[in-house]
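Section handout, structural biology tutorial.
Before the tutorial, make sure you can parse a SMILES string by hand: atoms, branches in parentheses, ring closures as digits. In the record below the ligand is flavin-adenine dinucleotide, and the chain has 663 residues. In the tutorial you will relate the predicted C-alpha cells back to the input. Do not try to memorize them.
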Amino acid sequence: MLSKLRLLRPPVSSGTRLISAWECKNYSDKKNSSEKNHRRKTTPPLIEVIKPVKINYSKRTKKNYEPVNISKREIQTKYNEPLTLCPLVSKTESCNNSNPPKSSHSPETLNPVSETNNEWQNGSNNKPYFKNMSLIGGAVILAGSLYGIWNSDILKLKKDDSSIKEIKKAKKSRKLIQIPALSQSIPDNVQYLLIGGGTASFAAFRAIKSADPTARVLVISAEGYLPHMRPPLSKELWYGDDSEMAKSLNFHQWNGTTRSLFYEPDPFYTPIEELASAKNGGISLARGWKVESINVSEKKVKLNDGKEISYDKCLIATGSVPKTLKLYNDASQDVKDKFSVFRSIADFEDLMEELNHVKSIAIIGGGFLGSELAASLANKGKKNGVKIYQIFKENGNMGKVLPKYLSQWTTEKVRDEGVEVVTNTEVENCSLDNNGEKVNLVLNNGKNISVDHVIMAVGAKPNTELAADAGLEVDPNLDGYLVNAELQARTNLYVAGDCACFYDNQFGRRRVEHHDHAVISGRLAGENMAGAAKQYKHQPMFWSDIGPSVGYEAIGIVDSSLNTVGVFAKGNPKDTSLSTNKTDENTTINDTDTPAELESKNIFENNYNKGVVFYLKNDVVVGIVLWNLFNRMSIARQVLKSDRCYKDLNEVAKLFNIHGDSS
Ligand SMILES: Cc1cc2nc3c(=O)[nH]c(=O)nc-3n(C[C@H](O)[C@H](O)[C@H](O)COP(=O)(O)OP(=O)(O)OC[C@H]3O[C@@H](n4cnc5c(N)ncnc54)[C@H](O)[C@@H]3O)c2cc1C
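Predicted structure of the complex:
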C-alpha cells in the first residue's frame, strides 16, 4: 500500500461547510474509483477535480503550456502580443548561427581574411594566378579541416555547451503572457477585486459566487497562467512515464483519475471585456498583470502600467516568494546562472528541461520542498544517471518538524530513493570550476561537492510588498499582513493564504504556508467579503509525500522542539496479517528515550512505517502527525480541540486504529 504514492491528497474539510455541486460530482467520482485506489474515499475534497481536459498546444504557446482549447481566432486576438518564449536552440541552429559569439570570432582574427577577400574580389592587383589558386586551395583545405574539427569529439562538447547556454538564455528571456494585452480592456471599477491567482484567490472567488451568484469578480494575477495549485509541482508531476502528460501539466491523482494543475480551464472565465455587462456577473482574470500599489482610503489599486481600478471589496492573496541564500545573492551572474529556486510552473518546466542536460543536481534545504524534490528528482533522474545531492543543516529530513528519530528514519528512506543526503552541513561558499561548467559548493565540514546545477529550497517569505505603500501592518515576528480573526486588514480589505498573519482562537497569532490553509482562509475571506462576518476557527492541516514510502498529514503546531510521544504499529504493515490484527501492538516512543532505549524498541526494524505522533505543550496536545495513516484527520481534529492533558497517549492512539486500513 505504501509503495503507491498518494496523488494530490485532498485536504480534509470542516464538518459544516457547504458542499457545492462540483464537489458532489467529484465525491461520486471517488466513490466509483477502483478498490486498489480507495484511499480517503469518504472525504470530499475542497478543490474541484477537473475532468481530464483535452489540452492542445499551439506551436507558439507550447513552451508556456498555455491551454489553447479556444478557437484560432481567439488565439490571434488573445495572444496578440508576440510570444517570445524562445525555442530551444538546436545544435544545428547554433552551428548555423549567423552571429557567432564574439569570443570565437573577434574582429582582430577576421580582419586579415577580409583583406585577402577584398583583394581577390576586386581583382585590382596584379598578383600571379597561381597565388590565387593556392589561396583557393588553402581555403578549401582549411575549410575541410575546420569542418572535420567541428565534427570531432573535441568540439562536440563545446557545441553541446553552447546549446545549454542557449537554453539558459531562452529560459531567461521567457516573456510573460499578458492577457488582456492592453489594460484598457480591464474594467475601471469592480465589485470584488482579488489580487493573486493562486489557491487562496481561487477559493475566495468560489465562495463569493456561492454567496452572491451575480457577483462581478476580477482576479489580477502576476503569473501568466490560469489559477492553479502548487503541490503536484514537487510530487506527482515527476512520477509516471508519460512525459507528455507532465508537460501538459496533467497528473494522476491518488484515485487513479487524471487531473489538471489548473483549477478551471480558460472558458470558465468570463471574457474581461464582458464582465461589466454580463447579466449574471462572472469571474474574469487579468493574467500577467501586477498590482503595484493599493490606496486603501480611496479603495483603488494601481497596475504595473499605471491603470487604476477601484473596488468595493478587495482581497490580497499574494502568496510567498522563495528565499535565496546569501552566498547566492553575493555571487557573480555566471554562478547565479547555475542556481534556481522552485515555486512556479515556469520553475517546474525549467527543471524538467535541465534534467535532460545535467548529470548532477544539489538541493540545499531539508524541509518539505527540498525533501519532496530530492526524492522526485532522484526517481526521474534515474534513467539519465543524474546524481542528486541534498544538503541541509538539520540532523535529518524534515528535522524542524519531525522528532529526531523519525526524521533520521525518513532520511534513510530518502537515501533508499538514491539521494545522497548530506546532513548537519551548511554550504559556505560557491564558485565555478575552471571550465565554468560546474559549480563547486564548499561545505562547512571541509568537503566540496561539484554539481551542474543547484536548487535552493530554503524556505519562503510572505509576499508583503504592497504593505508599506498602503500603510498596512506586517507582523514583526511571523511576517505577513496582520489581519483579525475575520481576515480583515482594514474595512473592505481582506488577506488570505500564505501572506496572512491571522488570529487563531486556539493557538493565537499564526501564519501558515500550506494548501489547506490557503483553501480555508481564501474561502472564509470570500464569504466575509460577501457579508458573512465569520471567524477563522478551522485548524488547517497539511500533508507531504517524500518518495513512495513516506506520506503524512499533520495538524496544529508540529514543531520538533516540542515534546512528542509517537505511537507506531509494531512490525511491517506490508504484512497483510496486520490489517486484520486489531490487538493494538504498538511501540511508544518518547523524546526522552535514550539511544539505547530506542535500540531496544527496534527502531531500525521498520517500526516507523505507520503511526501517530503527538506534540505537547505543557502536557496538552497541540499538534498531531499522522504517519502513513490516512482518513483519520477528523479524529486528530477532535483530539486537538479537546485542549486537555491526557494521562496515557497510548490510549488516545487507539482512537486512530493504527492497525486498521489506512487507505
Ligand atoms: C512546489 C510546492 C509544493 C507544495 N506542496 C504542498 C503540499 O504538499 N502540501 C501543502 O499543504 N502545501 C504545499 N505547498 C504550499 C502551498 O502550495 C501554498 O501554501 C499555497 O500555494 C499558498 O496559496 P496562496 O494562494 O496563498 O499563494 P500562491 O499560490 O503563491 O499564489 C499567489 C499568487 O499571487 C500572485 N501575486 C503576487 N503578487 C502579486 C501582485 N502584486 N499582483 C498580482 N498578483 C500577484 C502570484 O503571482 C500568485 O499567482 C507547496 C508549495 C510549493 C511551491
